[in-house]
Amino acid sequence: MTLKLNDVTVSRGVGPVISNVTLEVTPGEVTTVVGPNGAGKTSLLESLSGVIGISGGSIELDGVDISKMSRRRRSHAGLAHVQQGRMIFPSLTVKENLQLTASTKADMDGALALFPELEKRLDSATVLLSGGEQQMVVLARAFAAKPKYLLLDEMSLGLAPVVFLRLIPIIEQIAKTGVGVLLVEQFAHLALKIASDSLVITSGHVSYHGPADALLKDPDLLKKAYLG
Ligand SMILES: Nc1ncnc2c1ncn2[C@@H]1O[C@H](COP(=O)(O)OP(=O)(O)OP(=O)(O)O)[C@@H](O)[C@H]1O
């Protein structure tokens, strides 16, 4: 049971922005993809959830080829994608935002158990929350849908590092419930700390694939990987 990219190439506009990437996301673990701006990390996640098509290779979810499935079908198959930017419905309350994905009270309670801060704000319009709390709503809503695999794209954008720090153990906890998390982050060190497997991508190519702790322990290796 894994989410697998086999030799995937993604093209946009003039040519490939991702070339021959192979990667496996395992349930219960965090896998991270880091790399410089414009390396192709967002395109990689978009190809997994079906926002854009792939031009080579294949994508498998628990043994089923989903490469040609619509975004909706991939979502029904258990793939959730938290895209960049805070995708909340600002005029809805926190509770209403969660009800969009939680099909049962148990799903709602399960999501809220991860975010005790949100319990007190359930009836507040989401627009009134801080940036960090809004990202909690985004994450809680994605978790309430009970995905098998969760793709997270730069949740730290626009947040102070100290605010994003609060989300890191929650992402780790989500993985511990059995979800396979694929984390794309600009704060590479924070992502590497909670990840088991890691990829560094530069200009669409994999420049490192291996244990996250090896990159953390060896700043030269990380620097070399970033330089491609
Ligand atoms: N909608 C688009 N149409 C054409 N080219 C695009 C589009 N979106 C991204 N690109 C190009 O694809 C390449 C990879 O971009 P992508 O956003 O996937 O990288 P990234 O690693 O996520 O970067 P960042 O960290 O800045 O978000 C870049 O050269 C970018 O200019």
From TrEMBL:
One of its GO terms (molecular function) is branched-chain amino acid transmembrane transporter activity. Gene3D superfamilies: P-loop containing nucleotide triphosphate hydrolases. It holds the Pfam family ABC_tran. Keywords: Amino-acid transport, ATP-binding, Nucleotide-binding, Transport. GO terms for biological process: L-amino acid transport. Signal peptide: none annotated. SUPFAM superfamilies: P-loop containing nucleoside triphosphate hydrolases. InterPro entries: AAA+_ATPase, ABC_transporter-like_ATP-bd, ABC_transporter-like_CS, BCAA_Transport_ATP-bd_LivF, P-loop_NTPase. Residues 3-228 form the ABC transporter domain. PANTHER family: HIGH-AFFINITY BRANCHED-CHAIN AMINO ACID TRANSPORT ATP-BINDING PROTEIN LIVF. Belongs to the ABC transporter superfamily. This is Branched-chain amino acid transport system ATP-binding protein.
